[in-house]
């Protein structure tokens, strides 16, 4: 038991190679073949890779050129986000049959708090198994799951038995599980932080646990307290069923670099139109316009301005984007442009729905995990 820590029964559900699996589901000819969802051209990027492609080292966010080098037989498929959203909606309906405390992280993963659930099942492990079976039955897709006392441990656990598996870390095993874990598997510890931890002799959870709070705060700043807590099984973040959208954006990567502002404005017109479409679909407007520019040397620049009134139309977006574009001279040719609108009108008027206060888990809850 972890003294003073409010236990809950949290499930993290993560679809297996979601985009790629949907493409294989809809086109059986792709089953068993290495596929990548994304662009295979000179500027293309892999959005998702099937498990057959991952065996060759193909990963999401990898350039299409490098992906083809690693897997010459790789098949590229253009993404169909409307289809992915459709299936994601079906999956979320399944979640809500068990609990209303569902926090989507993306189209293919979510946290569920089943401490008190709609079907009265005391076992989070059995609920996760039922959910995965129902997803398979309703969509034909596989999902993996992690089950534990908080979101942090559940997130890590969902990756242990992938694909098409699940892992439960009950309360009495949390500390040992975290102590033995390779630090690179700690969710939230990125490459830069990991390398820094290596310099200080931190390779496992046990190594991290041996460091004092003052040491971690000195070396890692505000994140020091987070690292100190999580390795001790302490993560109090609740499952939040209503996640307020903070911004809305669209961007485009070009097949050839652009060096003329006139050509950039032409591309930005289309991007602004897409932002307007998404704003109308979600009944949103915003005050802060941001222009994103990625140069041919991959350096990234953003330029922003905040307006006194909310806007949502393409015309007003372009009026302000044009000002931002001519704010200063371009330092190089451009490979990507993007527009985002933040400071949205939902942030002041909506409050996130909060789940019931945490209660310390009792012995029966522990045994039924």
From TrEMBL:
Active site annotation, chain numbering: 109
Pfam entry (one): IMS_C
GO-annotated molecular function: damaged DNA binding; DNA-directed DNA polymerase activity; magnesium ion binding
One GO cellular component term noted in the UniProt record for this chain: cytosol
EC identifiers of the protein: 2.7.7.7
Subcellular location(s) of the protein: Cytoplasm
InterPro entries: DNA/RNA_pol_sf, DNA_pol_Y-fam_lit_finger_sf, DNA_pol_Y-fam_little_finger, DNA_polymerase-Y, DNApol_IV, PolY_HhH_motif, Rev_trsase/Diguanyl_cyclase, UmuC
Domain of life: Bacteria
Record flagged with keyword Transferase: yes
Protein name stated in the entry: DNA polymerase IV
Naturally occurring in which organism (per UniProt): Pukyongia salina
Source taxonomy: Bacteria, Pseudomonadati, Bacteroidota, Flavobacteriia, Flavobacteriales
